[in-house]
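Notes from hallway chat w/ T.B., transcribed later so I don't forget. T.B. wanted the structure written out for a chain they're using in a teaching module, and asked if we could keep both sequence and C-alpha cells in one place. Agreed to drop them here.
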Amino acid sequence: MNTAKPDSGPAGTTTGSTPAPFPTPPLFIAIGRGAVGLCPACGKTRLFTGYLRVAEVCTVCGAPLGEVRADDGPPVFTILIAGAIVVTLLVVMESTMNLSILTEAAILLPLMLIVCLGLLRPIKGGTLGLMLQIGMIKPPTQ
C-alpha cells in the first residue's frame, strides 16, 4: 500500500490527482476579478473588507485571500502609472500653456492624489489575483 503524498505544488495545491482546495480560473480572469474587487478564485464575494484590507478567507470557495501578501508591489505600480500620467500632462501643459508654477502645482498635485487613490485598490486587487493564481501564498507557520 502506497501512503506517500503527492508532490505539493504552489498555493497548497497538489501536482497529483488531488484537485486544488479552491477554484483556479485562467490568469487574466483572476486578475480581472481582483481588479474589480471580487474574489479572484470564484468571483462571488468581496476581496476587500475595507479600502485596502483584504478578507482573510473567501466565504464561498475558501480561498486563503489573507495569506497572499502583495506588500510593496501595488504602491510601486500605482506610482509608476500615476507618475506617467501626471508627468505627461505636465509636459503638455508646459509646452502649450503659459501657466505659473503655482497654478500647475495647484492643478497637478490634487490630480496626482486622486489618480493614486483611484488606482491603488484595483491594482492591489489585480496583483492579489495574479499572486493567488501563480501560488504566491504565505506558507503556514509550524
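Follow-up for T.B.: Confidence is low (pLDDT under 50) at residues 1-19. Might be a good example for the class.
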